[in-house]
Fold:
Amino acid sequence: MDATVIGAWVATGLTLFIFSFLYKDNPLFKLAENLYVGVSVGYTIVKTYDTVILHLIWKPIVEHQEWTLLIPVGIGLLMLTRYVPKAAWLSRYAFAFIVGVGAGLAIPRTVSSFILKQIEDTVRPLVMLVPGDGASFSWNLLNPASSVNVIIVLIGVSSVLFYFFFSVEHSGPGKTVARTGVLFLMIAFGAAFGYTVMARMSLLIGRLTDLIEYSDPSYGRPTLWLALVTVGTLIALSLWRRSDPPSSS
Amino acid sequence: MSFAERMLNIDRRIIFAVIGLCTLLPLLYPVGLPIKISQEVRGVYDHIESLPERSVLLLSLDFDPASKPELYPQAVAILRHAFKKNLRVVAMTLWVSGTGMADELLTKVAAESGKQRGTDYIFLGWSPGGTAVIINMGQDLYNAFPSDYGGKPTKGQPVLEGVNSLKDVTYAVSLGAGNPGVEAWYVFGKDKYKFELGGGCTGVIAPGLYPLLRSGQINGLIGGLRGAAEYESLIGQKGRAVAGMDAQSATHVAIIVLVALCNVFYFMLRRQAHRQSVQS
Structure:
């Protein structure tokens, strides 16, 4: 049998088993869930072994005599001393190296990219100075750099920041500003939730597209047969549980 | 129990069935709703369109099969565009679990475009380290990837002629489903080695990447299946993403209607409770 056909049957079966959770938790769902975790971990281990141990360590050292690679290998091996209580202190050297390099690389770059660049973009002049035309005010809402959008950003950022000043009582005019901040936060959360819904629906569309494709006779109609198997199993399980008297403790 | 109470306590499986039908029916009977091209998707398209032939496009496929429905169509559309423009494609992944899928995708699109591995495109595969790989590539690409996915030495392959590090990359696009992804490519790649960067992402992380787009840190963003559909429309090769847009719209309408109905029933119950408290 063609490997594509086998793949189609496996993919269809596992998809339907996972979908069966929407009805209720059942052994078919658990089978698919455990298989998914097992296969992904197994794949990761094999790929990591092949790429790291064979291609990045073993071959360069043995075939090309790149002895300097023994230094990172040694540092890496120090981590494994965690499993030997008497030698566990050695792992601190490896962790110190990793934390030091990681922090040294990440902190300046992150501050530059996410804090300084974003502040730079937020702090914009309300009125644009166009060479030759002097000061101008753009009303175009579709242009992110327009003056109206700059004002909206100013109100939004200030009010949201004010909302998070918990040392100041939100009363009087402060209450209005804090409420404006909450309004902006709600809009941001709404946009994020909308995108999340869209993403989840896209995943459903992807799975259903595959199920439709695999209902084709060229694959042996796995969607139809396996849907019958899944529904049949759920009915059988339900009947079996009903006939099985609850154990008294 | 009143009608409003019954509706607010409806079995969730009925809602699943409604959403399932709203997704399935448009997939079986497509309507072909129009797709409006957004400025952020056009940013990536226009930049690739402006590149001269044989420019180097670095495509980082930073996703795994779990995000395939959204990012796979994006990758297919970008690759088709790049091959049509006769660009040199250097593909790679920072996600180990997506390596096999990325290779299959690249091989498939290259075959349909008649492109040769090693001459027109290369798949570097995966290398451990996440963000460290990006930094390593910025210093020496051959040190980060001594051999390609097939085990062939990267040095000397015609597709990489004149490319020694990320500084020699004309345009990079990261299709990311999380971390490391678009943000990592900006922080440790573009910001340090100064190449132009575009992004593609799942719908879940898109709102978090819009600030990068607005500040010009990335020059375009393809968000989710909708973004993929827009890109497919731009290159004139409609595929899976466009086919899914009718279903996407139908489910969105269903959700809006459900949310609105739920609120109507909620206010009906509240008014009912208020009336009862006034009477008693």
Remarks:
- Chain A touches chain B through 43 residues (CB under 8 Å).
- Chain A has a mean pLDDT of 90.
